[in-house]
Structure prediction request, 125 residues.
Amino acid sequence: MTDAELEALVRLIGPARHIVLGTATDPASRADGERIAEAWGGLVLATVTWPETAASWLRQARRFAAPDPDVWVVSATPAGWAGMARRLLRSTSWRPDRTVVTSKSADVRLPGIRGARADGTTWEN
Prediction:
């Protein structure tokens, strides 16, 4: 993740009181998640990781959605995030319009979801 992307993500999180951070299990996603949490500096209610492939992602989805934060923040691989997002939509109260994603998670387009690109520009579906 570039510094410009990190700064844009922090702006998108904005004045949230707390977040839940979700990452893939790969080292780059986890490191990006740690950078986001540190740069934002607020309360992280939970950090949930999920694999690239899973039988259902149900356990991770429930843990991700349960704290009901102001903002969910995602740094994950495209395949893992696609599977996790499908499970979140089917099985939890998670809302895409309260979710911010990194550029590598941007391929999963859901109504209301927001994200940042590597150049620091932002987008919203």
Q: What stands out?
A: The two ends are 21 Å apart (CA to CA). Strands lie at 18-24, 43-50, 71-75, 99-101, 114-116, 122-124.
